[in-house]
TrEMBL record:
Gene3D superfamilies: P-loop containing nucleotide triphosphate hydrolases, Tetratricopeptide repeat domain. Residues 793-812 are annotated as: Disordered. The chain crosses the membrane at residues 24-43. It comes from Streptomyces cinnabarinus. SUPFAM superfamilies: P-loop containing nucleoside triphosphate hydrolases (SSF52540), TPR-like (SSF48452). It comes from the Bacteria. Keywords: Membrane, Transmembrane, Transmembrane helix. InterPro entries: AAA_16, NLR-like, P-loop_NTPase, TPR-like_helical_dom_sf. Residues 799-812 have a biased composition (Basic residues). This is Tetratricopeptide repeat protein. The keyword Membrane applies. Residues 79-216 form the Orc1-like AAA ATPase domain.
Length: 812
């Protein structure tokens, strides 16, 4: 080799010009020539490779290199009401940290739209964006390879996968792990088990779905199960839009259809469901549509929801048209569940749609119930699978908060699910069109609701949370066209309402009593004995809710009517007189209450006997009313006698016995017998908490009375602590304006004033005075007492600085 190179070198040296004779010139020139030669060789190979079609693996099929049109995201003008979700997605896009995102929800919730908005923002920021719409495994493989090639996947690595020396998903994700600043959206991944690899769960991350890249993978899916997607998935479930942005969606689509307020009203009626909003807006904007305004469309929904939202579209075979039909989006999910063998999902959803727009306790839906409406044998496992499937596809949700059931009873509420209002409505329409006869479904559900009420009633305190959940669904029984069961159904509602009143859930009880009263007034007449009983029940529920004026008005009317229809000594008339007297006593009208209760006690003793529970109740209430008139010694005597009799007749743990002990202790405290009062009140508080629950109204009353007794003993700090706790709990359970809540606020202010905390005491007393004027009236004794205490404490507060000034002067 040296012999050959020698002459060449000599020849070249002899021929070069003089300027190239220097080494510091020739070596840089030589380096440039070598670099240019290498670049030309590489470019030649690139052109050769582009000139011949690559040999792909079988599943990949044909691919045209350099064309990315099929991976471009759809264009979206704007997205309303998803600012928080977009901000979170943008944060994950910047720092994926080994995660991928699943936008999950039922059909029609706007998953694709949100993903497209994110893709548009990423593209505008300079990220490489790839949009893959799931159809089948072969097309997915082809599009994933396309994305990897765009991110710089070398030809040699694809050749290795073609030859079977490497896994194609491994090759693609290896390149996505090297590349930066990319976003890949896999849209419509509703059947994760089909994405592959075959026979392996997605959560193993061995197929096309992996959290390993240096960009971000985002999927849209109806499947929102964490088990499906694994621990590295960030599930982002989408909820319906709030009223304001939902209304703006309608205004965007049909700006001439009305005002923003009218659009919000229609949006609320449509449940904030993006697809329904889009369908309605598109309809309203159509030049040939029958309804052209938000208001007329909303009114039409009440008469023909099946026409406007649930009907089959004549061109439903076209996928873009089909997605504009609201009902179609959910039927796709139900069809998929049926293909998976989950055939009970559709009838279960239809059954749930018959119930009210409120949380549904899972215990209400039994295998026997679903079997009765489908005509098939249903076991527990099949029912649970149907629930799981509906939840996985977003057709069922979980309530955000538990109701007052758990608060009042101290027991955690039962498992429950909720339906989106529009899903419920359209499935009810679908059931009416499909089920024949529909009466079979109604009859089976009515029997199950009745049985559930009796179960809750027999369970005592343990049944209270279920009773609160059942309450909104019971009124449907009154709407069933079955005259022979009408009395039975009204009795069921009354039974549940009584359970709710024992639980302290007066608001739910009031709704049931009101519905029963309305039906009985219409069908039986206002003077029928059943109607009068329902009116009395409603009045008691109103008083428990803190509406004493309305309660007293109904009770007076009912007492007059019962006296005329049944006679003055009838047990029902005596009940009305007793309830009216209790309401009067509770509003400070003690003298009239004492008169009515003395009359009632004598009558009940004659009619029912001295030891009848109703007679003892009259004596208990008389003791409270006598105490209100200031006759504390007489009140203590009555309460001691009543407590002893209650223990003997009802037992020491009965809730009326506990109330009797509480009343005796409160009367003792007002007499100045603080030591015995404190002992009895602590016992009453412990018993109420154990038997009724920490948050039951009777338990809170015991704690309030204990605070008063401690204050009378001079233990102001402990009294303030108890009153603060009771005030907070009463606000949560009863509400800000309930008379008992106002009492707690007044008692807290009084205890603070005794501790010298006049500033906070004055603030609380002003709030209490305003509330009592609004709720009880300006001349009510409780209002007058608050006004007097406010004046006293305010005067002491103004005098305090002057006293401090005199002390400073004396020290000088």
């Amino acid at each position: 080799m040296a012999a050959v190179l020698g002459p060449v070198t000599n020849y070249a040296s002899a021929a070069v010009p003089g300027w190239a004779a220097h080494a510091w010139v020739i070596w840089p020139v030589f380096a440039v020539l070598v670099a240019a030669t290498i670049a030309l060789v590489l470019w030649s190979r690139h052109l050769d490779a582009a000139a011949r079609p690559p040999a792909w693996l079988g599943p990949v099929g044909r691919l045209v290199r350099g064309r990315q049109d099929s991976l471009r995201p759809p264009h979206v003008e704007r997205v309303r009401g998803r600012e928080a979700e977009l901000a979170e997605l943008a944060g994950i896009l910047r720092r994926p940290q080994g995660r991928f995102v699943v936008l999950c929800a039922a059909g029609g919730m706007g998953k694709t739209t949100l993903a497209a908005q994110l893709a548009g923002q990423a593209d505008a920021a300079g990220w490489r964006v790839f949009w893959v719409r799931w159809r089948d495994s072969a097309e997915l493989a082809q599009q994933m390879v396309q994305a990897a090639l765009a991110c710089g996947l070398p030809e040699a690595e694809l050749e290795s996968a073609r030859a079977g020396r490497a896994s194609l998903p491994d090759v693609v994700w290896r390149q996505l792990g090297r590349a930066r600043r990319w976003l890949l959206v896999l849209d419509n991944a509703d059947e994760p088990q089909e994405i592959g690899p075959a026979g392996e769960p997605v959560a193993d991350y061995r197929g096309w779905i992996r959290p390993h890249g240096r960009g971000l993978l985002v999927l849209t899916s109806r499947d929102g199960s964490a088990q499906t997607w694994g621990p590295r998935a960030r599930l982002l479930p989408l909820k319906p839009l709030p009223a304001q942005p939902a209304g703006q969606v309608l205004v965007d689509a049909a700006p001439a259809a009305g005002t923003a307020e009218q659009a919000r009203d229609l949006a609320v009626r449509l449940g904030g469901l993006p697809l329904a909003l889009h369908a309605a807006g598109t309809y309203l904007a159509g030049p040939t549509s029958r309804y052209r305004t938000f208001t007329t469309y909303r009114q039409a929904l009440e008469q023909e929801p099946s026409v406007l939202l649930g009907a089959e579209h004549p061109d439903a075979s076209h996928p873009h048209v089909a997605r504009a039909v609201v009902r179609h989006t959910w039927e796709v999910s139900l069809d998929q569940l049926a293909r998976e063998g989950n055939t009970l999902a559709r009838p279960l959803l239809r059954l749930l749609a018959l119930l009210a727009e409120a949380p549904i306790p899972l215990s209400l839906i039994t295998p026997d119930l679903l079997g009765a409406v489908t005509g098939n044998d249903v076991n527990v496992m099949a029912l649970e699978r149907a629930f799981s499937g509906l939840y996985r596809f977003g057709l069922l949700g979980l309530p955000h908060t538990s109701g007052n059931a758990g608060q009042a009873s101290g027991i955690s509420g039962p498992a429950q699910v909720v339906l989106h209002p529009l899903i419920r409505e359209i499935n009810a329409v679908a059931l009416a069109a499909e089920a024949s006869p529909l009466a079979t479904w109604h009859r089976a559900l009515a029997e199950r609701l009745t049985a559930a009420v009796h179960e809750a009633s027999e369970q005592g305190r343990a049944g209270w949370p279920a009773a609160v959940l059942l309450a909104p669904h019971l009124p449907m029984l009154l709407d069933l066209p079955a005259p022979h069961t009408a009395i039975h159904h009204r009795a069921t509602l009354n039974t549940l309402a009584q359970v709710l009143q024992h639980a302290g859930a007066f608001s739910a009880a009031r709704l049931l009593h009101q519905r029963v009263l309305d039906v009985e007034t219409r069908t039986l007449g206002p003077q029928h004995t059943d109607t009068l009983t329902s009116r009395n029940h409603l009045a008691n529920a109103l008083f428990g809710m803190g509406e004493p004026a309305a309660a007293i008005h109904l009770l007076r009317q009912t007492l007059q009517d019962r006296s005329r229809v049944l006679g003055t000594e009838h047990p029902d008339t005596l009940t009305s007189r007793h309830d009216l007297a209790c309401a009067l006593d509770g509003t400070g009208q003690h003298a009239e209450a004492v008169s009515l209760l003395r009359q009632n006690l004598t009558a009940r003793a004659d009619v029912l006997g001295l030891m009848h529970p109703h007679t003892l109740a009259s004596r208990l209430s008389l003791g409270l009313a006598v105490e209100g008139t200031g006759e504390h010694a007489e009140a203590v005597r009555l309460h001691r006698q009543t407590l002893d009799d209650h223990i003997r007749v009802l037992g020491p743990e009965h809730h009326i016995t506990l109330l009797s002990r509480h009343n005796l202790a409160s009367a003792l405290a007002r007499m100045g017998e603080h030591a015995e009062a404190e002992r009895l009140l602590r016992q009453a508080l412990d018993d109420h908490a154990r038997v009724l629950g920490l948050m039951h109204p009777h338990t809170l009353a015991s704690r309030d009375s204990l605070g008063l007794a401690l204050e009378g003993m001079g233990e102001h700090a402990e009294a303030v602590r108890l009153h603060r706790q009771t005030l907070d709990d009463r606000i949560r359970v009863l509400g800000l304006q309930h008379p008992d809540t106002l009492t707690s606020r007044h008692n807290l202010a009084h205890a603070l004033a005794k501790m010298g905390e006049q500033e906070e005491a004055v603030r609380l007393l002003r709030q209490t005075l305003a509330g009592r004027i609004r709720v009880l009236g300006p001349e009510h004794p409780h209002t007058v007492r608050t006004r007097d205490d406010l004046e006293t404490v305010s005067t002491a507060r103004r005098a305090a600085p002057r006293r401090q000034t005199w002390r400073r002067r004396l020290r000088r």
